[in-house]
């Protein structure tokens, strides 16, 4: 924690007893960062920025929300119509969820492309997947709170999936519902957890950053820093780069908030929940669609649920499934082609998840699901053995200076 100096006696006195300023100096200013990071490394800080927006807007929304089945829908409408700038707060929160997932998905695929999950960053990768799981749980419960048609029926369908587990399944469903159907106890449970889980995400983000600063950042070349020539301090170089990224992102984000606020939403969710009327096509939010497609691709209910969960669990084993010693796809030409094929397959799964489970969509979902798992369980272990990577540079600085020359 060295390097912090000040002439202010009050700050110096406080820092000796609680080294907040020394920690900030060490972690946010002097922190050695690879000198060749590109703009794909902005998405982690952008996700943290959106998390703060989600927390702040969520706190203000809670002040005016009523978690009762007879009041929830109307309380959301009151926020939109009667609360000062309530429409803005809700649209920031609603679209912020989609922005959060967009940023995190880009962040995950960037890590997969550049091999940021490989040793010694396995725990860093694990914590990131835990953040992703906590985000999914938080988003699902938040989607139920407006208590529209899609909220009610989405909660009914997704919670019923747990009934597929033998012996304990029905007990889990009853615990989630707080009774024998999706009703007021369910809404209260989801409201409580939706308010709690974002703070769990904050805790996981702190651990994620802690792990990052322990093993240091990966970089586009995938080679470790070798001394001061390979690194630059985080501030001012990357703080300016992150601020520039935030400015560009805000134009994208606020474009949806002000001009297309319901772009990511479902029209049926503006109809109050009615247990007696089933929507013609029940779909989750767009960021769940690839996993929803995997769920429906398997004819057996239990196996479908297991496949859906396995699609995320397999990510925990990625550092060992990828047997290549080279991190970055920049030096792995065959892997790079399969990576983009995998990316396209995930987009295709998302498309199929939003379509009815009929016609050619069913066999297409099954083929895409098989390829999803084959990428991790067959292709990655095989590529590490048969692929011949390009020669790695001696160091980051050598590669940077060579490019400049």
TrEMBL record:
Binds 2 heme groups non-covalently. It is a multi-pass membrane protein. The keyword Membrane applies. The chain crosses the membrane at residues 39-66, 87-108, 123-145, 152-173, 193-212, 243-260, 302-321, 333-354, 360-383. Residues 224-394 form the Cytochrome b/b6 C-terminal region profile domain. A ubiquinone binds at residue 213. GO terms for cellular component: respiratory chain complex III. GO terms for biological process: respiratory electron transport chain. Its main location: membrane. Its cofactor is heme b; heme. Residues 10-221 form the Cytochrome b/b6 N-terminal region profile domain. Heme b b562 binds at residues 93, 194. Heme b b566 binds at residues 107, 208. InterPro entries: Cyt_b/b6_C, Cyt_b/b6_C_sf, Cyt_b/b6_N, Cytb/b6-like_sf, Cytochrome_b, Cytochrome_b_C_euk/bac, Cytochrome_b_N_euk/bac, Di-haem_cyt_TM. It is found in: Membrane. One of its GO terms (molecular function) is oxidoreductase activity. It comes from the Bacteria. The keyword Transport applies. Keywords: Electron transport, Heme, Iron, Membrane, Metal-binding, Respiratory chain, Transmembrane, Transmembrane helix, Transport. The main subunits of complex b-c1 are: cytochrome b, cytochrome c1 and the Rieske protein. Belongs to the cytochrome b family. Component of the ubiquinol-cytochrome c reductase complex (complex III or cytochrome b-c1 complex), which is a respiratory chain that generates an electrochemical potential coupled to ATP synthesis. This is Cytochrome b. It comes from Magnetospirillum gryphiswaldense.
